[in-house]
């Protein structure tokens, strides 16, 4: 992502087939200073030169480190990062970069001395950047391998991977901004961690492996140009007095950047995922996580998902009777809905005043919270399943917060519930401690409703008053009402008759 972000800042002006010469290099430097400040050029952090019919843009990490107050950084060795850019006749830029790098650094962190070394072998990338979109319309990158070693007083970590590839594409969005798609794959990912805590005596090695790691992301309506305008404003107004004087412009730019994006979704997945530990190997044939979020909207949503299939755990960790009850596949989905960030953002932008401390009052914050909750945001459990060869548990529902107290409505369906009971009953014959779970399972079944397909269903309603209803039957009554009256130690008769 570094080359993408870095180049996005650089190539802010259309190329239009301009000739590559020293004057063009100077102009490119001036364009760049708008986003990184003139000091970055003056101190050699960034350099633009002409090389073989293209502009060479060099970023010197050592020069950057030299400008930071030296307080914790003890050692820093990072080769300069360079890319070549060449103007095209349509106003876009051809971009190529060498991603092969080695670096090391040491610093004083929370766990004492910490050090990191990493290297990327035969890394390269190329793409076409469109200044009008402030994004790459296309791009690819690859590497032959990478390694990273990091350690502190209590932990040593080694990460490695073989070849990897990545692609990206961007188009102009229908409602402004850009739509993008990213895809990445890495082979033979390994992360080995050794915990060694002298204080507790804990020594515990863990190794995470996967022959294939993949990541995919897509977005709609990402406001790339307004976000770059905000960055330029920040650079031009780094002085506090100037920033306060120009806060009206800041508010205008913040509003222009809304909704930041319409929607962003991404997934991260492993094939044949394995965690090796001293107690055995945990694994999954497929393991993935997913995330999705609307931008700053009046009725936005956010969602998370975890999927795993072919789950395995070391058998020696659990009693034999429990193995048949363990899930082999999970699909969990949860998130939120009715999230009004649009009203909150616009009200906050309108109200803040940098000349005040704090810029937003505590009273305003409380009112903002009240307004947000008035839109009835929800915690949502999307259709989720947990299953093995004999049973499947499915659930979905939502939770709201009327009067700031939760109200939940959840539906749970189970196929093969009798298999669970039978398994517990069989286990109880040889494992007496299991017998205590049998009556609990039978009681739960008693509250269930048998559907036409044989599944058991429980519809659970938890009310703000503390009551819980399962399939229309009161399982728990409402909490006792709080008595807010004040006992003054007397009654009306006492007050009427002052006689002792």
Can you give a write-up of this model?
The protein has helices at residues 2-10, 22-36, 38-42, 61-67, 224-236, 240-245, 247-257, 320-323, 341-351, 362-374, 417-430, 437-447, 492-496, and strands at residues 46-51, 54-59, 73-78, 81-87, 93-98, 101-109, 112-121, 124-130, 135-143, 145-151, 155-161, 164-172, 178-197, 202-222, 263-277, 280-294, 300-309, 329-339, 378-387, 392-400, 407-415, 449-450, 456-462, 468-470, 473-476. The chain has 500 residues and is of the alpha+beta class. The protein has a 25-stranded antiparallel beta sheet that branches. The chain is globular. 15% of the residues are buried.
- Main beta sheet strand tally, sense and closure: 25 strands, antiparallel
Q: How large, in whole angstroms, is the Cα Rg?
A: 30 Å
Structural class: alpha+beta
Distance between the termini: 85 Å
Strand count: 25
Which shape, going by the Cα principal axes?
globular
**Residue runs with pLDDT of under 50 for 5 or more positions:** 1-5, 492-500
Beta-strand content bin: over 45%
How helix-rich are the residues, as a percent range?
A: 10-25%
Write the layout of secondary structure elements.
Layout: H1 2-10, H2 22-36, H3 38-42, E1 46-51, E2 54-59, H4 61-67, E3 73-78, E4 81-87, E5 93-98, E6 101-109, E7 112-121, E8 124-130, E9 135-143, E10 145-151, E11 155-161, E12 164-172, E13 178-197, E14 202-222, H5 224-236, H6 240-245, H7 247-257, E15 263-277, E16 280-294, E17 300-309, H8 320-323, E18 329-339, H9 341-351, H10 362-374, E19 378-387, E20 392-400, E21 407-415, H11 417-430, H12 437-447, E22 449-450, E23 456-462, E24 468-470, E25 473-476, H13 492-496
Antiparallel strand pairs: 1-2, 2-4, 3-6, 4-5, 5-8, 6-7, 7-10, 8-9, 9-12, 10-11, 11-13, 12-13, 13-14, 14-15, 15-16, 16-17, 17-18, 18-19, 19-20, 20-21, 21-23, 22-23, 23-24, 24-25
